[in-house]
Specification:
With 322 residues, the chain is of the alpha/beta class. It has ten helices and ten strands. The strands form two sheets. The chain has an eight-stranded parallel β-sheet with strand order 1-8-7-6-5-4-3-2.
Amino acid sequence: MLPPILQNLRIPVVASPMFIVSGPELVIAQCKAGIVGSFPALNAREKDGEAPLLDVWLTRIAEELDRHNQANPDRPAAPFAVNQIVHRSNARLDRDIEICHRHRVPIWITSLGARPEVNAAAHDCGGIALHDIINATFARKALDKGADGLIAVAAGAGGHAGSQSPFALIQEIREFFDGPLLLSGAIATGRAVLAAQAMGADLAYVGSPFIATAEANAPPGYKQMIVDSGAEDIVNSSLFTGIHGNYLKPSIRAAGMDPDALDHADASTMDFGKAPGKAKAWSQIWGSGQGIGAVKDIVPAGALVDRLTREYGDAKQALCAG
C-alpha cells in the first residue's frame, strides 16, 4: 500500500533528482504536470557568505505550488522531493537536513549510504524517506535503518547506475518487502512505466528524458545530445566519480578521451566535497540512461509528462484489448 503522499498522481512517476540539471524551474513544472518533481540538495550552491540557497529554493517551490493549487483546486500539483547525498564527504549534510526539516519537505530521497538520523528527520516533520539501492543487500540495510520505501536502480539507469536486470532486482526485493518500491533504469515511455508496475514496482523513477526539457538546467548541447543519442551511445564507467555510472560517449570524446578505451587506473575517489576528476562529471562528462532513444525533441516538461501519460493509457488499453 502506497503512503497517501504517493497516491493520486496523474501517472505513477517520480522524476529523479539529477545533479546540476534539476532545479526549481524543472521541479515546479514536473509537480504542476502531476508527477513528483525532485532535486538534489547539493544543486543549491551559494557563494561563501551568502544565505543558504536551499532555503530560497524550498520557499520558492512551496509558494509557487501553493499558488497553483489555489488557482487549480481540481488539478492540484503533485508533491516534491529533495535528494540528500549522505556520503561522508558531503560536509553540508547536517545543515541541509535542518533546512529540509524546517521547510517540512514531504518526500526525502537518500543516496550513497543509509543514515537513520536522516530518516528520523524526515519522519519528524511528517515526511517519508525513500532510499535508492542497487541490490537486495543494500535494500535490507536501508530498511533496517528506517527507510519507508526503496528506489531500485537497475542496469540502464542514468548517472550512478546498478548492474542488475530490473527483473532480477525487483523480484528479489519483493520477496521480503511489500512497501513502496520505485524502479529506475531506461524508463522513457509510458509503456515502460506500465512495465515497471507489471514487474512489481509501484512507481517509475524517470530522469534522463527530462534533461531534454525547456526547464532543465542543462547546456543546450547536452539537451541536443540526449535527442541525438540512443542506447549505443552510453558507456558505463567508474573513472569520473569513483562509482560506476552511465555517460554519453560524445561528451567523453569532447573532453578529449576515447570512451571505448578509458583508463580506469586513473579513476577518481568519490568525494562530494569538491569536484573530482580531471574531466568533471557532470558539467563536462554528461550522464544519461539507456532509454533516451525515445526522446525525439526538446520540449517543456509538461509536454513530456503529457506524452508519458498518453502512452501509459494507450498501453493499458492495448493490454486489456489483447
